[in-house]
Write a structure and sequence with these properties.
about 325 residues; alpha+beta; seven-stranded mixed beta sheet; two-stranded antiparallel ribbon; 9 strands; about 45% helix; binds 2-{3-[(4-chloropyridin-2-yl)amino]phenoxy}-N-methylacetamide
Length: about 325
């Protein structure tokens, strides 16, 4: 008969060698867990071996018990070591596989912005006038009474001030009612010949409705030279309106502006109806005098139009306020 103590101790040692080898060669965490259950689990090999301790004598038992503990600790430490190694390898493999190439093109389509219909009109108009040799000029939206009215032949008691009532600031300055002030400033700073186009935001003390806004956009043009006539004005406007609306009938109808003489409204035949689209005229000699130009030497013409009105006619809009409320369902149509 073999000695049960030696037998058990030999089996424990064999279990340890066997287990350590298996653990060392485990190549996945799943496999490692399998081995843990197989060796150290409740019904594992170590438990089974210890089950036979009942056959041992009282002296032998503590010795084998201690040996079993050593084996258990050795296997446990072997498992821990291998788990740490496998986890590190797993992370390393993940890092290798999931490298991010930040130079690759994106896979999401960025929504493309578009030009607001008002800016679309402004861009087209400026393009046309720049094509005719005009320079784009801009100026402040807050103006003095002089540049907005006085220099434009509109003194304080002039009836035209009524229609052009605006917002006054406490210091006496005001919000410009037209971009003509830009042209006055430009003429003061430069000498003829002059060809400028002035786009910009302007203000009126108007009640807001479907066709009126207290803030809107205007484009004005001005040409000053020796020998300019009403015919030059008509040709320029005809060329401009044809570029925007196509070759439609236009007519000039006598009108009045304080800063032009003679003055005219320009109508365009659009869908069978005459629509008023612009105002224009020959620059009043008083305006030329105000900027120090000799009206006996120079003549000039000027014209102005509202950008909103052009947008509404071109795009068949029913309400000016749609241009300001930033509703994307509306704006995406243009
Ligand atoms: C309109 C009409 C107009 C002008 C603007 C102008 C400017 C200078 C001298 C003379 Cl510096 N005239 N501008 C002339 C006629 C009409 O605008 O209906 N605007 C919305």
């Amino acid at each position: 008969m073999s000695n049960p103590e030696n037998d058990l101790e030999a089996q424990l040692n064999a279990l340890r060698t066997d287990g350590e080898n298996a653990i060392r060669s485990a190549d996945t965490l799943d496999r490692l867990e399998e081995l843990r259950v197989n060796y150290l689990g409740k019904k594992g090999q170590l438990s089974v071996l210890l089950g036979s301790m009942g056959k041992l004598s009282a002296e032998e038992r503590p010795k084998i018990g201690a040996a079993a503990n050593t084996v258990k600790e050795a296997l446990q430490s072997s498992l821990d070591k291998q788990r740490t190694a496998l986890e590190a390898a797993k992370i390393q493999a993940q890092l290798q596989a999931e490298t991010l190439d930040v130079t690759m093109p994106g896979i999401y389509e960025r929504p493309q912005g578009r030009i607001h219909p008002l800016n679309g009109i402004i861009d087209r108009a400026l393009d046309i006038f720049v094509g005719m040799g005009y320079t784009v000029a801009q100026g402040p939206e807050m103006e003095t009474d002089y540049y907005n009215f006085e220099a434009l032949n509109t003194p304080a008691d002039h009836p035209a001030r009524d229609m052009q009532d605006t917002f006054y600031l406490p210091d006496g300055n005001l919000l410009r009612t037209q971009t003509s002030c830009v042209q006055i400033r430009y003429m003061e700073a430069e000498e003829p010949p002059i060809r400028i186009v002035a786009p910009g935001r302007v203000y009126r003390k108007d009640d807001v409705d479907a066709t009126h806004s207290a803030v809107f956009h205007q484009i004005e043009l001005l040409a000053i030279d020796e020998g300019l006539t009403f015919t030059d004005l008509k040709g320029t406007i005809k060329e401009f309106l044809t570029s925007i609306f196509g070759d439609l009938p236009i007519r000039f109808r006598a009108s009045y502006f304080p800063f032009t003489e003679p003055s005219a409204e320009v109508d365009l035949q659009w869908n069978g109806r005459w629509l008023e689209v612009m105002g224009c005229g020959m620059v009043d000699p008083n305006v030329l005098n105000a900027v120090g130009y000799d009206p006996e030497v120079y003549t000039g013409f000027a014209a102005g139009f509202g950008v909103e009105r052009f947008a509404m006619v071109l795009h068949q809009m029913d309400d000016i306020r749609r241009l300001y409320t930033s509703d994307l369902r509306f704006l995406k149509q243009f």
